[in-house]
Amino acid sequence: MAKRDFLTRDQVRDVYQNHAGVYDFAVYLYYLIGMRIGHWRRLAMEALKLRPGDTIVEIGCGTGLNFPLLEKGIGEQGRIIGVDISKAMLEGAKERVARAGWHNVELVCSSAAEYRFPDKVDGILSTGALTFEPEYDRVIEQGAMSLTSGRRWVVLDYKMPTGWLRYLAPLLAALSSPFGVSVALMDRRPWESVTRHMRQTKMRELYGGFAYIISGEAP
User: Fold this and answer.
1) 30-35: long-range contacts (C-beta < 8 A, 24 or more apart)?
2) Which pLDDT score is estimated for 7?
3) Which of these, 64, 67, 96, 109, has the minimum number of CB atoms within 10 Å of its CB?
4) Domain residue spans in the chain?
């Protein structure tokens, strides 16, 4: 398997270890090609239906870019558990938490597949991360079992579009390859796992079908 396909956890971890220092800046460069990432993140928060006091697990939290939005929804009495495979990315998250003075954030260094969800969480979020996990179906299933009934799993991620836009996928993958994006990964389908393990699912395609948000309620 060519390394550029980024299909293993070790490849993904190494990419983010090496680029953690520039990650926050690089994310905003995507606006130059029309990706409204900040707006998409806010849509994901709306789909979570956060409540004050909620406990939220974020899979692939990175440097904590979603933490301000999560904190706004759950308040000081809530709790965020941020999980990421990269120690360097978590160092960035730790610095963000310290600067903001938040005391309700727990950071866990683990792959998504090896993480053990606590019981009765009130929401699970993953933005731009589950596609990198080979065992994403098992992660989504385990997360679904940990959720309080009626609460939500929300995934914001990228995918292969349908139709002629598929032919632009190599270009997008090349632009995003410093952060592990590849055409091979774009063929993974985590949204199908959300549909399989959750109920009342709702999916919205973004950016011509290159990205999506899906939410589902725990049984």
Assistant:
1) 33/175, 34/207, 35/207, 35/211
2) 65
3) 109
4) 3-217
Q: Which amino acid is at 44?
A: A
pLDDT tens readout for residues 138-189: 999 999 999 999 999 999 999 988 888 887 877 777 777 767 777 878 889 9
Q: Give the Cβ contact number of residue 20 at 10 Å.
A: 20
pTM here is 0.90
| Helix boundaries (H) for the chain | 9-19, 23-29, 37-48, 67-74, 87-100, 136-146, 169-176, 183-186, 190-197
Q: How many other β-carbons are positioned within 10 Å of the β-carbon of residue 170?
A: 12
Strand-pairing partners, residue 214, are 155, 203
Give per-residue pLDDT as tens, 92-116. 999 999 999 999 999 999 999 999 9
Contacts of 72 (CB under 8 A, 6+ apart): none
Q: Please tell me the distance from the alpha carbon of residue 219 to that of residue 217, in angstroms, as a whole number.
A: 6
Quick one: CA dihedral 158, 161, 165, 169, positive or negative? positive
How do 79-84 and 105-109 pair as beta strands?
parallel
Name the superfamily (CATH) of residues 3-217.
Answer: Vaccinia Virus protein VP39 (3.40.50.150)
Q: Has residue 1 got a pLDDT over 60?
A: no
Burial of 167 (0-12, 13-18, 19+ CB in 10 A): exposed
Residue 78: pLDDT over 70: yes
